[in-house]
Amino acid sequence: MNRLVKTALLAGAAFGVMASAAQAQQAPAMEAQASTVDDIIVSARRRDEALKDVPVSVSAMSAERLEQTGASDITALQQQTPNATVQVARGSNSTLISFIRGIGQQDPLWGFEPGVGLYVDDVYVARPQGAVLDIFDIERIEVLRGPQGSLYGRNTVGGAIKYVTSRLDPDAPELTLRGAYGSYNQIDLLAQGSMPVTDKLRIGGAVASYNRDGYGENLNTGAEHYDKDVLAGRVSVEFQPTDNTFFRLAYDRVEDRSNPRHGHREQAGVGPGAGVPGSVYDTYAGLGDRNKVTTEGVSLTAQVDLNDVWTVKSITAYRSGDTDTLIDFDNTPAPTLDVPAIYGDHQFTQEFQALFSTDRIQGVAGIFYLDGTASGAFDTIAQNFGIVIGTAGYVKTTSIALFTDINLDLTDRLHLGLGARYTVDDKTGHVFRANYLGATRSPLLGGTARAPILLRTDYTRSNSFDQFTPKASLSYDFSDRITGYASYSKGYKSGGFDMRGDAILTPNTVNGYQPETVDSYEIGLKGSAFDRRLSFASALFYNEYQDQQVTTQVPAVGGIASFVDNVGSSKFYGAEVEGSLILTDSLTANFAVGYLDSKFEQFLRYNLTTQQYEDISDLVVLQNAPKWTGYFGLTWLGEVAGGSLAVTPSVSYRDDYSQFEFPNPVLDQEAFALVDLSVVWTDPSNKWTVGLYGKNLTDEEYRVGAYNFAGAAYNDSLIGYYGPPRTVTASLQYKF
Questions:
Q1: Mapping DSSP to helix (H, G, I), strand (E, B) and coil, where does residue 584 land?
Q2: Which InterPro entries match (predicted)?
């Protein structure tokens, strides 16, 4: 089945090119066409440009496209974007895990940096908690693949995801109401609107409620498991006192009260509730069912067009978040391996940009500043040892960067792009870790007050990191519709301190870990052909990944050893092609195929017995790096009952991939395909919209995360986390 799906996806991409060639001679010019790379406007280089002209691998999805395919949150990007992993983290309902071209970070613990940057209207979102953004009130989402070190800075070694919201209508009031009901008693409600107060001032906002029963059940407590209870909102005020000045003040908040996801035991242990539940969404967890994640932020954007050449822009933002969560790692009623945790973070960012554009030179230069603190505490309750390991700490970060990106039109067809960024990060980390007698909560998490029986870690250290990240590209317009490019870029992820570090088992943890870097080489071809029936973007890339940071945890005598090491290096190469093809006036095909080959050149692992580092690169693989990813969808547009009907069947494919660097046949995910179908009808007045969306129609069971705590001490706790089962949702929307 999966081999068949992969073949079909590759054939679909090839068919797109061949079919367009066959139809090129008789294809009439059409007034209404699917969006092409000539039409799509992106801000990948911090200025609005046609996608065709940007020498960067970018997938851009409009609000209309996301609505047409029934995308509810940004994890839907994974299905339609080649070589991308965008999914909900282990144990949470709103924490984001992102990988692009095999580079990312799946550990959401405070102090660890993501490998894929997330931006909401150019505001950097530093922490993954609450970052599974629901899709509403947006203009488009852009996925930038490959290191974005020059313009987007630290922690974009894999790429960046840009969530771009819509500007308010300056002329007339608007109101949209939407409701949806679906499988597992899903009830989604949305209200969004705006209104002009004067001809210069307008206000707008949106509030959304997402509720759903669990896909499974906690068979121990009777609570819902994999449920959803999210309330999100956004308010903005836009002020345009003159034609060349613009101000936007925006506030957003997300509150997630969904039950914790404890996972599914993948192999049987010993004792009551240690069997393998029949449904992959069920658990026997005994730690509890209380969970709350709250994130919010406020931003002020100011833009002034000084003249026809220069524009200055300021983006000021403050964000904060709090998490109170539980994960029962052993998935049994007993506290064999229970982890209650609290996280807290806040960040202030300020960015100034100066944008300029002349006949031959366009670009941006600026300065970025970040001041943030991430902190938290968690307990590792280990009944078989009769103890709890309490861990707490914080990381304070100050970062400042200077950046520029310039495009020079050497000729009418030949363009040179040059970019650079210099970043300085100052970090202070505090880590406390201690054993307390009794397998109950420690004093750090509100447990009985008692002194530790063994102090494992207690240090405060500071470190500074700096990095120069250049970028260069050369692009050539082979015609008005086809552009080719070659580029080099460098990515950088900051160093830091291991918040789980155990100074008894790994004494070097007090020194922290160093930054990692990626050197990326890419060639691409993008554009449109055959009277714009075919729109495509393609790329070949090669990455050299140095000083790679890898987080691993292994059971050890008296506790769990955590490693965050600069393990060594790896190399990647791959290819991507995506696009759309207008087959007839009513039928359009969308396709995306990604290929990725990755291998560790060096992987240094600390041996707890010999207390030496050993190269075990022949035993490890890159996590979340499937060799093949693909998407193929057909959209039929026609007139039905006087309105417009869009029918979109689609299939997405992901090849085998490993959950961690160490392959595990019990936890790793085999290749799978997801089949979706959406039907959307809009009435002649364009006010009423009715939608029917089927997701995972073949009811595929597939893991999106795992934990591996094998051994008798932790009751062989191998835990898997699964993506959604088959669901069907109906929606009704009305625009005033």
A1: coil
A2: Beta-barrel_TonB (IPR000531), Beta-barrel_TonB_sf (IPR036942), Plug_dom (IPR012910), TonB-dep_rcpt-like (IPR039426)
